[in-house]
Every structure is written in C-alpha cells, then in structure tokens.
Amino acid sequence: MEHILGQNWTITPAGGSTGEAYYAQNEGKRLFLKRNSSPFLAVLSAEGIVPKLVWTKRLENGDVITAQEWLEGRELTTEEMQHPRVASLLSKIHHSSELLDMLMRLGKHPLTPEEILLDIKENQKLLEHINVRFEVHHAVKYLEKNVMHVAHDHHVVCHCDTNHNNWLLSSDQKLYLIDWDNAMVADPALDLGMLLHTYIPKGSWDSWMKQYGVTADDHLFERMKWYAVSQSLSFIQWHMMRGEHVEADRRIQKLYDMMTRHKINI
C-alpha cells in the first residue's frame, strides 16, 4: 500500500475477516483503503449508503485499490438498532433500482431458498467430523420442512449481514451500512429476518415495519423466520470452518434462544 500513497502515509490494518482493509493517515488526511472491493462500491457511495469513495486505482497485477473517506464515528449499539433511521436506510437500500441494476449487471442472480439450503447441507457434510450440537440439526430439519413455503418472486439488493457492528454512525450523526462484500440479490426477508429476530422486540415489529414502509403479513413473517434460521446456520458453519469454536458455540446459543423465543419448531 505504501507505494501507492507515498512514504509519508502511516498505514495500519483495519481488521475484518478478509485482511484486505487498511487505515491510512498523513497529517490531516485520512483514508480507508480496501483491496479488490466490488465495483458496486461506487453506486453505494453515490447513494450515500457508505462513506464517500475518493478514488480507485488498478495495480499492474490486476488488483484494485479503493479509497474512501475515513470518518470519525462508531458502530450502533444493539438498542439503537430499534431506531427508525435503521428501518429507513434499509428501506432505501431495498427500494433502490440503481443498486439492483448494478448488482444484476455484475452477474448476481436472485438467490433462492433452495440454493441456500443446498449450501448449508453441503457444508454440514464437510463438518461431519466435528461434534455438531443438536440445535444445528434441529434447525436444518426446520429449513428442509419449510423451504417450499417461503418462495417469493420480488427480489432486491440484500446486504446479508445486518449485524449492529456493520452500521456506522458518524460524528455528524449520519448513518451508513458498511461491509458489502457478501451482498446478494434476494428476498428482502433475508435482511429483515435476522435483524428483527436479533434486535427488535416482537411487540415492536409492526411499528418497525411501518417505518420500513410495509405492512407485514403472515407470509412475510414466515419468510423472515426461515431466513433468520438459515443465516444463523451459515454464520455457525463459517466459524466452525475457521476453527473458531468459541464463537460458533456463541452463535449456536443465540440460534437456540431465537428458536425457543419465537417457537420455531420442526
């Protein structure tokens, strides 16, 4: 990275699962750098969903480096996920024809429940050597039983990881949704399910959904439930494959709590 910016810049890793993100600082100038971000980032920046894209540079080896504004700010707390501005920004994303058009042109096809279930079951085969707990097998059975009941033909751009630490509140109180590496074209229930089941008290769902811009029906709630379970399993499997068993166990407990709280049965 130093040869791109020059020797006067201080560059430090920004963490994250890919190890491809960095902070860069030079006196009063500050940037957030990332290697091989999707071209999708430019549209997200133009829509005000992520911090402003400053420049993009292609290296001789074909890698692409992007630089964004490095903003003072913090992630949302779990309680702040209930704020109407979260529902409003997610609604803006899901209703953006520009975002959907760009992601489709980048070759993303609508993700179906059948594809998600197949991927989860394939990963389970790879993890057979690990003593996977009963809760995981119970959740897979639930997905199998209900996969035919969650078909939906309206697809939008989904972030696919609406965890509170991906919501950035800047020092000037502007809200962003960051880390779009796993974005897909899918049923909006994919984003809604995990967010509401994790952060929003059940008694507040109707009011939250009104802020989002829809009146929910039973089919939407069923789809949200199915996707919340499937995403939970995907995260559990991801941590297991990385050998992060403590985090996988924590996710399994959260899955169990969610399925118990919302009476998700086989």
UniProtKB/TrEMBL annotation:
InterPro entries referenced in this protein's UniProt entry, alphabetically: Aminoglycoside_PTrfase, CcrZ_PhaseVar_Mediator, Kinase-like_dom_sf
Q: Which SUPFAM superfamilies is this protein grouped with?
A: Protein kinase-like (PK-like)
List each copy of the Aminoglycoside phosphotransferase domain by range: 14-223
For this entry, the protein name equals Phosphotransferase
The major lineage groups are: Bacteria, Bacillati, Bacillota, Bacilli, Bacillales
